[in-house]
Structure formats: C-alpha cells, structure tokens
C-alpha cells in the first residue's frame, strides 16, 4: 500500500506525517520529515529530520549558501541529499524490521539531485506500506507517482487535514488484518 499526500505548500502535509508517525509508533515506523525553519514568522529554510534515529540536516536555506544549486531563493544542500538522504532512503528495505515507511517529500528541492528519483523508485517498490508527500503542482517527473493506479493519492485541504492521520491509521490497521487473513488462508467467504 502506497499512500501519497499532495497539497499546496504550507497546507500541513508534514504535520500530518508527524501525527501519523506518533499514531503508528507501535508499528515501528521509519522515515524522514522535512520541517520549516522560521525566523520572525518568515520561512528561511528547511531541515530534514530522520526518524526514529533523530538526526537532522539542513536541506535548504535563504541566508546560507549550501551549494550552487538554487530553487527560487533557496540554496539547496545537494551534498546532504546525495550523501545522507538518498542512502537513508536506500536503507529502507522490505526485510527491514520497520513495518511502515514515512517519507517527506517527493519534492522540487530533492529533485534537484539526479539520483533522487531512483531512490524514490526504490521506496515505492518496497512491499511494505509507504506514506509519502509529493509536490502539489503538475510536475512532469512527479506524474508517475501521482498517476499510479496502485497508489492512493489524497489531496490535503484545510477542510480534511485534521482527519487524514486517523484515516490513514485505520487504513493501515485494516491492511494488516487483510494481509494476515491472506497469509493464513482464512479468507473463504460463503455468500449463499
């Protein structure tokens, strides 16, 4: 099961992932969340936080030059993407003890690395549930994730964002029960 959250910038996708992480702690989730850095109420950068390990790295900054690669006014930390984030993504494997993977985000900043999409493909091929966020706009490179008929794509709005974490937890609970039934071959249903 792959669940992809899309929504405009600042709508609360990362906040939903944090709630999901807390709700799913008993399922041993693993992943990363991108958080905003703010000064005087203004967004000045982004930080990648790795879960459950707890490490973090600056992803983008307005005031600090992190590389020669920019997206709008943000300097992008390509070194952190390629030498920290991507290896972390590749460490997510089907045989891992982690039951659920959370990934924030399949976004424009990360996509500035040529190796990033290959790592996203790796995550999306894992046979365990993945909950990810994706860029809202119709980016050509992101269409394959938004249009995969096997994925569940949820558009986050101000009207539904308070309920999505609980909805996803329920979906995962039933997904696990369904898989147990299949594994134990206890899924015979007599209708008549």
Distance between the termini: 31 Å
Most strands sheet:
9 strands, mixed
CATH class descriptor: Alpha Beta
Strand content: 25-35%
Structural class: alpha/beta
Overall mean pLDDT stands at 87
**What best-fitting shape do the alpha-carbon axes yield?**
globular
Salient structural properties:
192 residues, globular, Rossmann fold, 27% strand
Describe this structure in a few short sentences.
This protein has 192 residues and is α/β, with parallel strands linked by helices. 32% of the residues lie in helices and 27% in strands. The chain is built from 6 helices and 9 strands; from the N terminus they run βαβββββαβααβαβα.
How is this structure best described in words?
The protein is an alpha/beta fold and 192 residues long. It has a single domain (2-183), classed as P-loop containing nucleotide triphosphate hydrolases (Rossmann fold, 3-Layer(aba) Sandwich). Helix content is 32%, strand content 27%. The chain contains six helices and nine strands. The protein has helices spanning 13-23, 78-90, 108-111, 116-124, 143-146, 164-183; strands at 2-6, 30-39, 42-51, 56-61, 70-71, 74-76, 101-106, 130-134, 151-155. The chain has a nine-stranded mixed sheet, with helices on both faces. A hairpin with a 4-residue loop joins strand 3 (42-51) and strand 4. Helix 1 packs across helix 6 and helix 2 runs parallel beside helix 4 (116-124). The longest helix is centred in the C-terminal third of the chain and has 20 residues, at 164-183. It is globular, with a radius of gyration of 18 Å. The mean pLDDT is 87.
């Amino acid at each position: 099961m792959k669940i992809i959250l899309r929504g405009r910038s600042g709508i609360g996708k990362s906040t939903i992932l944090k709630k999901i992480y807390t709700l799913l702690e008993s399922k041993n989730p693993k992943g990363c969340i991108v958080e905003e850095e703010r000064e005087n109420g203004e967004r000045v950068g982004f930080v990648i936080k790795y879960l459950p390990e707890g490490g973090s790295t600056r992803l983008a900054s307005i005031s600090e030059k992190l590389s020669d690669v920019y997206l709008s006014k943000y300097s992008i930390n390509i070194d952190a993407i390629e030498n920290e984030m991507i290896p972390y993504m590749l460490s997510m494997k089907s045989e891992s003890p982690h039951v659920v993977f959370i990934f924030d985000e399949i976004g424009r900043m990360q996509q500035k690395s040529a190796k990033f999409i290959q790592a996203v493909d790796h995550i999306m091929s894992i046979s365990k549930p993945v909950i990810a966020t994706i860029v809202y706009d119709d980016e050509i490179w992101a269409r394959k994730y938004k249009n995969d008929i096997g994925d569940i794509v949820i558009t986050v709005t101000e009207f539904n964002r308070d309920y999505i974490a609980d909805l996803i937890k329920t979906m995962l609970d039933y997904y696990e029960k369904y898989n147990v039934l299949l594994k134990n071959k206890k899924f015979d249903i007599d209708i008549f």
